[in-house]
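Repro case for the chain-ordering regression, as requested:
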Amino acid sequence: MISAGSRPRLAAKARLRWDRKGERHMLLYPERGLVLNATAADVVQLCTGELTVEAIVEKLAEKYPTQPREDLEREILTFLGRLAERGLVSDGGD
Amino acid sequence: MTEKPAPHDLEPRPYTLVAELTYRCPLRCPYCSNPTDWARHDDALSTEDWLRIFREAEDLGVVQLNLTGGEPLVRDDLERLVEGARALDLYTNLITSAIPLTRERLAGLAARGLNNVQISIQDVSAPASDRIAGLVSFERKLQAARWVKELGLPLTVNTVLHRDNLDHVAEVIGLAETLSADRLELANTQYLGWALRNRAQLLPTREQLDRAREIARAARKRLQGRMEVLFVTPDYYAQYPKACMDGWGRRFLVVSPDGLVLPCHAAHTLPGLTFDNAKNASLADIWRASPAFNAFRGEAWMPEPCRSCERRTIDFGGCRCQAFHLTGDAAATDPVCTLSSDHHIIEEAIRDAPAPAPAAFEYRAR
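-- result from build under test --
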């Protein structure tokens, strides 16, 4: 379960790569891949197990100053929740 | 923030290269997906050939590389191939029987950038697993699976399901949990090649299948976020065919040990199609322009009932190889489809399969 205090870490099986063909990021894992939009890729890059979700929200709020912070936090939490359901991130603080 | 399952675009683009490095294998599974005449195909591609194929594939859009066979570990240049794949930023998955594996070699592959290891386990006990594999191998497979996790690599366990092990699905799941697998593939046998020869011995009953599917469904829910549980239904018991290979020449490139570039691993068993060799032509030319890759793309080739069926963009008419091997016509509707005029072939196969009992297999030839 990912909450504001979690320190999300990308799973060993998942790897982010730039897709030249589609000019987008892809998150690859065995036999599958997810196409990420730019903000989703920003979040994944910060899932090192060191930053809390709150700190990730902070960083993205700096990068996207026009986005209301509450929206950003809610979006990041639901996005990370979906990745956790697929086993692609876990709480590094566990 | 969005994440969409790839591939989601409509244009043909290969995402996955299946590199069949060799058809040689220490196991003799009676459902082996290699061609029944596998020994006629030499390992004709050099290390340099394979590295060029990887580069050309990546250039076409491939992001996933499956190093498979046969048994890919029998090639002593596997380390260089993994290194080459890593340099291209490919997600590299080693699909192995784990039999010629040592901890040292696995550590070397991990250090060179291998991303995932998939190990086949044939059943949940040594006697049963070894009987299917045709080799004493079960304990060595478990040992190799433990090394995978000890070295920090993700582990996929793959178990091919059939009549003799379908009732052990709960134990297979338990075994995969014990091994801390990241992904479990419960893949029902596809009845082509060796498996078609052994169909009467392998085909399960509907009751077996329904029980196993329920167990897998419950496990998927329970293990969500820890272990991905995939259950591949046997299409003999499905209402509609599978989107075989996500459609002919849409998402997959397969290269056989002798260099044939194929839309699926069994395509070279189809008559009337000429497949080009990666030694003589570029992957890009073959992918885009070869008559064989274009033979079953799109909808123009489709017969009725596919042509006017609303599912034609979902299952693409099913499996061409199954259509040919069961009806004699590669362009027929896949007979597993209940709308196919040939569906009686499937119903008869199910009806004629003897009751579950240990059977004598025709093992894959050495």
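Ordering looks correct now. The radius of gyration of chain A is 13 Å.
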